[in-house]
Amino acid sequence: MNSDHSNHSDDQxxxxxxxxxxxxxxxxxxxxxxxxxxWAALAAAVLHTEGVSCGELGLRFVDLEAMAELNQIHMGESxxxxxxxxxxxxxxxxxxxxxxWQAKHEQATAVIAAADADAGQALSDRxxxxxxxxGDVVICPVYATQTLHQAQTHNPxxxxxxxxxVALLVVHGVLHVLGYDHAHPDExxxxxxxxxxxxxxxxxxxxxTGRELLGCDG
Length: 218
Prior knowledge:
Largest sheet: 5 strands, mixed
Mean pLDDT: 78
Number of strands: 5
Distance between the termini: 31 Å
Radius of gyration: 17 Å
CATH class: Alpha Beta
Oligomer: single chain
CATH architecture: 3-Layer(aba) Sandwich
CATH superfamily: Metalloproteases ("zincins"), catalytic domain
Number of domains: 1
Shape: globular
Low-confidence stretches: 90-101, 119-129, 206-210
Structural class: alpha/beta
């Protein structure tokens, strides 16, 4: 194994939803450590809140070169980007209506708590026989760092950390896998609202990122 690579992976299984997070970044390129367990748990929480009760999601953290290659192959765009989402079997998620949000959030919280209490149960008893492959979310931490530095240069007073940026990209990517989009203003507004709610609920209470979706690459 090349010691310059972190190559760390983490699996999070919560009440039938499994998130496989892998850090493929090189230590020399990415100065910020990637907590795969934390980001896998955030992705799982988003899936639960969005009503996903069973499925498997891949979450990869890659360097600039790998992201640029994926961006060229799948999007026809040159150069790296911050996040890419690749849905597989998942059907587009029906966006939550305003009055559904609290009920969904409370339900997700209860499901996660019950799963934690039942952590000793066998894996085969905790997931369905046929697992839905939801898709993959790929994030480039180095690009995220560059974006963060640019934002801080334009607005030094902005209080946003590297973790805030990664949390945004995780939530953003998972929402894309579930069928959300921001190609049109109405779609962007809906996705922005849901993204901010999910970040406030599962990343940092009461916080929003200040990032407008129309300016996101993913």
